[in-house]
Design goal:
The complex is a heterodimer.
Chain A (H helix, E strand, L loop, with lengths): L3 E14 L2 E14 L3 E5 L6 H9 L7 E10 L2 E2 L7 H14 L4 E4 L3 H4 L6 H12 L4 H14 L16 H13 L5 E5 L7 H18 L2 E6 L2 H7 L2 E6 L2 E7 H6 L4 H9 L48 E4 L2 E3 L4 H16 L1
Parallel strand pairs in A: 3-8, 3-9, 6-7, 7-8
Antiparallel strand pairs in A: 1-2, 1-4, 4-5, 9-10, 10-12, 11-12
Chain B lengths: L4 E12 L2 E13 L4 E5 L6 H8 L7 E6 L2 E2 L5 H7 L3 E4 L13 H11 L6 H14 L16 H13 L5 E5 L7 H18 L2 E6 L2 H7 L2 E6 L2 E7 H6 L4 H9 L39 H5 L5 E2 L5 E2 L4 H5 L2
Helix pairs in contact in B: 3-4, 3-5, 5-6
The chains are: A alpha/beta, B alpha/beta.
């Protein structure tokens, strides 16, 4: 399995606070190959960002704690679930070498991601100098190249972040993230703070660069339109769980989990005229107090008796399409027995 | 003069170091009873300033705002106080527009108290609870504080406050931008139900074209303080004429894999609204810009069917 650059296996992350334990990520697994894009969608508080921070080793300490699970980068585990301080520090030292080099992240708000008192060019050169043994002059040269690559004239090397607009700042953040040609790029809502016309520019740029460098991209967003635009695979996160995972064709042409369906129905459409939007009542379960039932049960339109007290596992409904719902189970079992009979 | 709200040649300039910022430049429109006018544009195009100027939260520089036949452009605060119950606003960020030290019932009662609507506190409480029912807030939340509630419920408090005085016009400034899609759908449905029940008129300010399509009867597209296209909602999506509106529409990521549209990617970004030259403000980014676009500013002109566009070459571009 050498083609998988990033593999997340049964990841469980908790935030341990004074008020109690928030179960932010519950048993999430997915994998990414080189040049592939996975979109993670879900509402605020679903745990999307926590997944990203865990992969980057940036969980807020000491509250954030990986309980179990693995994150494999090129087959090597990069998260430390032990509480031992010694092991945590060793992990942090290793992550410092990897961050920016093998794995990078683009944050939602470009203004707070950049250093306001350092010229943007130097911020790109800094990453290059940290991870490569190159001279200052060469770093400047390569940083200027990166700027040109993301569509910012090299003459603006010495400008400060406040001299750029939001879209241009996000381009610089992208340049910093891609400077060392990472294998995995995590983008946490990279275009949410931007206007639609600028968003279109930035998405086009990211897509082009991703293909050029053959980077695996983990795209975190709440906008299903963005997913349809640039992703190959899509995962839907609800209350810290992956409720549906599949290729974009699976998710968009055949959404199977009631939550995914609800998400699509709630969107006002540009092509169709609808009198009233369909919405589901209620709120996501509190991660501090998750029920033993299926986490979506209270809001679910298709709930049954099975949903009480048992959280459904992920069922594979067709190759590569996983759905976490009891309703799916009978169909899957029937199909499996059919396949057995056919084999006989 | 028909319609509940007539705005004519409204201008709002801000003095800044280095000149004047033309936030709203020569905007005219009419809003009828029970209708929704959608105002769309990117950040910095002056849509929020327009909303605030109409409610006189800011004094306009020049122009005319006529509300129910009464010119309210330059009337003094005392006169305006009498009108305020009829014109209300819902803000974008429900947390920062609420008082963190007031409970939900106090927040909703505040406008009623200011205008002395009820003499006895029993009546007042009854009305507050009624309002909470109307906007779908469970009564058990009456004594909670905004920080204890989620974004959707906070926005419902904002709506209840706006409704408290039985207004005729509500300016909604990005009321759903901060909310998740499922909650967004709930709030949009609520606003539509209230409109049907009470015959409210909305001015709906947003950057989200699919939301505006869903809720509006008429749409104004703004670019750097000017309205560049204005018509009925159906017409706009059937017959998009201005190159900027076309680009804006094509830039929206569509949550579907079928019928992917050809993208029009605009170059560059919004130019500065400080001391704008007398040219088409969209010209630097426009795919069709010619010399004339850089020498004179196009006027909003009717191209038939109540469809107004500000573009010199609208007929050529669209083959009309």
């Amino acid at each position: 399995m050498s083609d998988k650059v990033l593999e997340v296996k049964n990841l469980i992350v908790h935030y341990e606070t004074e008020d109690g334990v928030a179960e932010a990520v519950n048993d999430v697994s997915f994998s990414l190959s080189a040049g592939e894009t996975l979109g993670l969608v879900g509402e605020t508080g679903a745990g999307k960002t926590t997944i990203a921070l865990t992969i980057m080793g940036l969980l807020p300490k000491p509250a954030g704690q990986v309980i179990s699970g693995e994150v494999l980068l090129n087959g090597k585990n990069i998260v430390e679930s032990s509480r031992s301080r010694f092991k945590q520090r060793a992990n942090e030292r290793m992550m410092r070498k990897l961050r920016g080099d093998d794995i990078s992240m683009i944050f939602q708000d470009p203004m707070s991601a950049l250093n306001p008192v350092t010229p943007v060019g130097e911020q790109i050169a800094e990453v290059l100098r940290l991870h490569n043994k190159i001279s200052k002059a060469e770093a400047v040269l390569r940083a200027t190249e990166m700027m040109e690559l993301v569509g910012i004239p090299g003459e603006r090397y010495k400008n400060y972040p406040h001299e750029f607009s939001g879209g241009m700042k996000q381009r610089i953040v992208i340049a910093i993230a891609l400077a060392c040609n990472p294998r995995v790029l995590i983008a946490d809502e990279p275009t949410t703070a931007l206007d639609v016309t600028i968003q279109a520019q930035v998405l086009q740029l990211m897509n082009g660069l991703k293909q050029k460098f053959n980077t695996a991209l983990l795209m975190i967003t709440h906008d299903l339109g963005v997913v349809a635009d640039i992703c190959d695979k899509c995962g839907v996160i609800y209350a810290g769980q992956m409720v549906e995972l599949g290729s974009v064709e699976h998710i968009f042409n055949n959404p199977s989990h009631p939550y995914t369906k609800a998400l699509f129905n709630a969107l006002p459409s540009l092509d169709k005229d609808v009198e009233r939007l369909e919405s589901i009542q209620g709120l996501m379960s509190d991660p501090m107090n998750l029920p033993p039932d299926c986490t979506f049960r209270e809001r679910c339109a298709e709930k049954c008796e099975k949903c009480v007290n048992t959280d459904p596992p992920l069922f594979e409904t067709e190759p590569g399409h996983y759905v976490r719902c009891h309703r799916i189970a009978p169909a899957v079992e029937a199909e499996a027995s059919n396949a057995k009979e056919a084999a006989k | 003069m028909s319609g509940m709200l007539n705005v004519k040649n409204l201008k709002k300039y801000f003095p800044v170091s280095g000149g004047t910022l033309h936030a709203v430049d020569d905007v005219s429109f009419t809003l009828n009873y029970g209708e929704t006018l959608g105002v769309v544009g990117e950040s910095g195009c002056g849509k929020s300033t327009l909303g605030k100027t109409i409610l006189r939260l800011m004094a306009p520089t020049s122009g005319e705002i006529v509300f129910e036949g009464k010119d309210i452009t330059f009337i003094n605060n005392k006169e305006f106080t009498a009108l305020r119950p009829q014109m209300q606003m819902i803000f974008q960020d429900p947390l920062s527009s609420l008082n963190p030290r007031m409970s939900v019932s106090q927040q909703i009662a505040e406008p009623l108290r200011i205008y002395n609507y009820y003499k006895s506190s029993d009546e007042m409480e009854k009305r507050v609870l009624e309002l909470m029912d109307t906007v779908g807030l469970a009564r058990r939340y009456a004594e909670t504080y905004p920080h204890e509630l989620d974004g959707g419920r906070r926005q419902r408090i904002g709506i209840a406050r706006a409704l408290a005085l039985n207004p005729k016009l509500i300016v909604c400034d990005e009321p759903v931008s901060a909310l998740d899609v499922l909650i967004q759908a709930q709030i949009l449905n609520l606003l539509q139900d209230l409109q049907k029940e009470r015959g409210l008129s909305y001015m709906f300010i947003t950057h989200n074209l699919s939301v505006v399509k869903h809720i509006s009867n008429k749409i104004c597209v703004m670019y750097l303080g000017q309205v560049i296209e204005q018509c009925e909602t159906k017409e706009l999506f059937k017959k998009t004429l201005h190159p900027y509106t076309k680009a804006l529409l094509s830039a929206i990521p569509v949550p579907s894999l079928k019928d992917r549209r050809e993208r029009i990617i605009l170059k560059g970004e919004l130019t500065s609204p400080i001391n704008p030259k007398n040219n088409c403000r969209f010209a630097p980014r426009c795919l069709y810009a010619r010399e004339e676009c850089f020498s004179s500013c196009p006027k909003l002109q009717d191209v038939g069917g109540n469809h107004q566009v500000a573009c010199h070459f609208v007929k050529e571009i669209n083959g009309l």
